[in-house]
Specification:
Layout: H1 2-12, H2 20-37, H3 41-46, E1 48-49, H4 50-53, H5 60-63, H6 73-98, H7 100-124, E2 129-130, H8 135-148, E3 153-156, E4 160-163, H9 164-185, H10 188-207, H11 216-228, E5 255-257, E6 266-268
Antiparallel strand pairs: 1-2, 3-4, 5-6
Helix pairs in contact: 2-6, 6-7, 6-8, 7-10, 8-9, 8-10, 9-10
Length: 279
């Protein structure tokens, strides 16, 4: 699978859309604003509904991604603004780490899988309408971020600090509760959307060995390696190309290479997303 994706990237990587998340955020904001004036537009003309698609409304295969947010009062607007900021942060973080092509593959692949899964549900069960848009795909993007940056800290309600890995566990529990609720209510299209989003996340990380580090064998190997090797004093393995801090002087920091810079430039978590790319 890895070799297949690498070959695809070599052939089609030049066609990748950089900053793809920006366009989806624009669509998301625009559809939300339009819904204030035409609240029924999405549900009657744009949502994924295969019964209507079979009657010629093929644009729904693409426009279902335009599901608007709910702006219910002050807190609804505040939550919408925070959500847009989070989507932007997660999207750019993942693209900086994976590169434009692989982020495109993850995001667009999730959309295609959602359409195919809902089509299979329509053929087998007969349920055709799904109004959730890409909400669960965005949530899978959050899980991807948490796997890659488990120690990243967020301020809940701008007060309570929680690490990304803790938020991922809480979100997984919430998704499981939603899944059970949808099953009880017979809302199978939403169940399928959740399963597909999480499946896209798992397939992608398996393909890129993103989950290997959590396997018991890999954990044991890392512990054995650290126990059997000693790094010479004064020699650092990671160092930020901007501020010069390293794992010896600042052990609380994490360091990562930038995929957009030409050369092996490594940055601390503070400068990873704020530095000027070396071309």
């Amino acid at each position: 699978m890895q070799n297949f994706v690498k070959n695809m990237e070599k052939k089609f990587g030049r066609y990748a859309i950089p900053d793809l998340i920006n366009y989806f955020i624009i669509f998301y904001v625009a559809s939300t604003i339009i819904s204030l004036f035409m609240p029924e537009l999405y549900y009657y003309f744009l949502a994924l509904d295969f019964e209507r698609i079979m009657h010629g409304q093929v644009w729904r295969l693409f426009t279902f991604i335009l599901a608007p947010a709910s702006l219910d009062g002050f807190f609804g607007i505040l939550f919408f603004i925070i959500t847009v900021h989070i989507y932007y942060l997660f999207g750019h973080s993942l693209e900086n780490l994976w590169g434009a092509f692989r982020f495109n593959l993850y995001f667009i692949g999730g959309i295609v899988l959602t359409v195919l899964a809902e089509l299979i549900l329509f053929i087998t069960v007969g349920q055709s309408a799904y109004y959730g848009g890409m909400s669960y795909l965005y949530q899978s993007m959050f899980f991807a971020f948490c796997v890659l940056f488990p120690e990243e800290q967020f301020l809940i309600y701008f007060v309570f600090p929680l690490k990304a890995k803790v938020l991922a566990v809480l979100d997984a529990i919430l998704l499981a509760v939603n899944m059970i609720q949808y099953l009880v209510e017979g809302e199978y299209p939403y169940c399928v959307a959740i399963v597909v989003a999480m499946l896209n996340f798992l397939i992608f990380f398996y393909a890129y060995k993103g989950l290997d580090r959590f396997s018991p064998r890999q954990v044991k190997r890392r512990k054995d390696f650290k126990r059997q090797t000693m790094r010479p004093q004064g020699v650092t393995k990671h160092q930020c190309a901007i501020c010069g801090r390293n794992e010896a002087t600042n052990p609380e920091l994490s360091f990562r290479f930038c995929s957009k810079c030409n050369g092996n430039y490594e940055y601390c978590e503070e400068h990873l997303f704020t530095h000027q790319h070396v071309k």
